[in-house]
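Hi all, posting the design record for the shared folder.

TITLE: backbone redesign
STEP: 1 of 1
STRUCTURE INPUT:
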């Protein structure tokens, strides 16, 4: 099988090289999003429907071409319809429902929504949406606010929308984690903008109104201060559009935040009229590409390319206290654009990529800064969150297994490469790793699996993806084994063995892996599971997995699946995910 894998590796690595951009790194391509289109169209309409007529018409045409058979809309073209995206599309269409073809599409969406217990003529839309998202207002309140602004649905719509406490944003960032905020850490711009427009539109008590009236202008200044140079908050189309349409309807159309946000939306629209949820994941897919090449990295990437990648990764490392989440210098975000925020998956990914590309001393400054950044973000439970330490009240702010496993590998590699650093540094490093490993031990399920946070599967109960999470953690732990003593290795091997047993048990009959047992397979999940079973006696499972991958590649090419989760559970797929996962699986087996 190795000779066949060598051929496929060469073929795939050529494709990977061709995907590299002219600047010497990878940008990939995120799927277009019906939700992103709907919210962007609404924002452009409220800003200036005539001035933005071309972009609005292109967006509406995209919606006309991309509805599902049931009349609803999903997050990607491969996603089943859902009430959130469909409701936002319905609301955006309501702004142009005088056009016959738009009205017809809107009526089709209404049929889907009614079939899912949202009757736009008599039902309580707010109750349905709030019931779906429960205590997490990150997405439910912006959805209801946009609907109300677009004339949907029932009378007194604003009275049924919870007031977001935007005044709390004025407290020092270090106190945010102590507050029981109803939005996740990365949604503070929405907390402010959506909170202000709700405040303007609904009644409130005298005391609350007095407090919020006094806080309004200060909160807007804070929002302005956190605006990235690109104009896009988090480089995200939905978040930026929600902020813009809220501020416009609150009477702040001429704010710099709005003008730059609208420019961002117009600039990021695709030729076919669509928008992705986020501009790109360039840092993430670049580090995935470097990792995917394994021990053959130098055979694929010449010295010039390696130097270019090193320079790029050094350039996009955060050099300041970040205005968005207040973290220290040293972290990396998911893209090279200015709206990116340092996070706990891209930071270990970039650190590992730099250490693969360079001798330790050449990148010492960057690696130690990244290490200290990770130290400061680690939670009291030993795990690592995504953006901000200590929030943890809502799912996307909690410590999670896949990010923690990634950090373990990065920190263990640092321990192996920088043994001459101070005793105090070494102690801190070892303690951080020890706490992270205890987190992983505690959060391994009885069946041997781990759950990821930012990845899922649309067909699995609760949209979880234990195959992805388990495969990622196993790969991280296996790669970190050379850096540990025998006692720690023994403990990790026990965890790894349980995880491997889980993966073997949930493999499909056709050799593929989906998100869980009996879930149709994808290239991403199958490749990552096959990679995780490197250096085991599960040869039959691995052979069947590579057989399925080979067949899939020949018949359908590198078809990407919507396994990514973004911005309060929006699905996306990424063009480079299947390619990098397939290459990583082959590399691990050829290197073993």
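Okay, here is what came back for every position:
SEQUENCE:
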């Amino acid at each position: 099988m190795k000779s066949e894998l060598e051929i496929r590796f060469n073929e795939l690595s050529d494709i990977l090289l061709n995907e590299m951009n002219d600047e010497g790194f990878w940008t990939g391509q995120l799927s277009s999003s019906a939700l992103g289109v709907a919210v962007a169209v609404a924002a452009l309409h409220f800003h200036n429907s005539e001035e933005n007529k071309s972009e609005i018409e292109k967006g509406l045409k995209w919606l006309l071409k991309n509805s599902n058979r049931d009349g609803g809309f999903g997050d990607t073209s491969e996603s089943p319809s859902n009430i959130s995206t469909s409701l936002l599309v319905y609301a955006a269409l309501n702004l142009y429902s005088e056009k016959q073809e738009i009205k017809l599409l809107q009526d089709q969406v209404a049929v889907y929504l009614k079939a899912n217990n949202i009757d736009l003529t008599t039902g309580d839309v707010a109750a349905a949406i709030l019931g779906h998202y429960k205590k997490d207002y990150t997405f439910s309140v912006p959805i209801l606010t946009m609907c109300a602004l677009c004339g949907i649905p029932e009378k007194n719509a604003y009275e049924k929308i919870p007031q977001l406490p935007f005044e709390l944003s004025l407290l020092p960032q270090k106190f945010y984690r102590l507050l029981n905020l109803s939005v996740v850490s990365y949604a503070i711009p929405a907390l402010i903008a959506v909170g202000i427009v709700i405040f303007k539109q609904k009644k409130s008590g005298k005391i609350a109104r007095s407090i919020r009236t006094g806080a309004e202008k200060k909160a807007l200044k804070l929002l302005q201060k956190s605006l990235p140079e690109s104009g896009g908050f988090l480089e995200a189309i939905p978040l930026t559009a929600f902020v813009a349409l809220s501020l416009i309807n609150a009477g702040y159309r001429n704010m710099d935040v709005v003008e730059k946000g609208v420019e961002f939306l117009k600039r990021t629209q695709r030729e076919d009229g669509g928008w992705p949820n986020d501009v790109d994941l360039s840092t993430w897919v670049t580090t995935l590409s470097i990792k995917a090449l394994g021990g053959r990295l130098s055979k694929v990437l010449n010295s010039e390319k390696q130097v270019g990648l090193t320079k790029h990764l050094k350039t996009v490392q955060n050099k300041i206290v970040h205005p968005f989440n207040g973290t220290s210098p040293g972290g990396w975000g998911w893209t090279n654009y200015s709206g990116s925020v340092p996070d706990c998956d891209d930071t270990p990914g970039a650190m590992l990529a730099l250490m693969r590309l360079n001798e330790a001393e050449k990148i010492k400054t960057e690696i130690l800064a990244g290490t200290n950044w990770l130290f400061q973000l680690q939670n009291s439970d030993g795990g690592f969150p995504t953006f901000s330490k200590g929030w943890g009240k809502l799912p996307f702010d909690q410590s999670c297994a896949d990010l923690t496993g990634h950090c373990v590998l990065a920190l263990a590699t640092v321990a192996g490469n920088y043994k001459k650093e101070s005793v105090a540094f070494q102690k801190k490093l070892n303690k951080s790793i020890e706490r992270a490993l205890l987190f992983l031990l505690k959060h391994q399920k009885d069946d041997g699996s781990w759950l990821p946070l930012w990845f899922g599967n649309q067909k699995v109960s609760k949209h979880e993806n234990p195959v992805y999470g388990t495969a990622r953690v196993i790969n991280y732990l296996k790669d970190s084994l050379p850096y540990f003593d025998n006692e720690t290795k023994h403990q990790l091997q026990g965890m790894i063995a349980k995880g491997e047993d889980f993966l073997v048990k949930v493999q499909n009959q056709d050799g593929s892996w989906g998100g869980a047992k009996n879930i149709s397979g994808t290239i991403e999940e199958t490749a990552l599971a096959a990679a995780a079973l490197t250096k085991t006696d599960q040869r039959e499972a691995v052979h069947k997995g590579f057989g399925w991958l080979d067949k899939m590649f020949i018949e359908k090419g590198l078809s990407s699946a919507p396994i990514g989760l973004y911005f309060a559970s929006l699905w996306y797929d990424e063009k480079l995910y299947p390619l990098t996962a397939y290459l990583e699986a082959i590399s691990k087996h050829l290197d073993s």
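COMMENT: The domain at 24-29+279-387+396-591 is CATH 1.50.10.20 (Glycosyltransferase).
Let me know if anyone wants the other runs.
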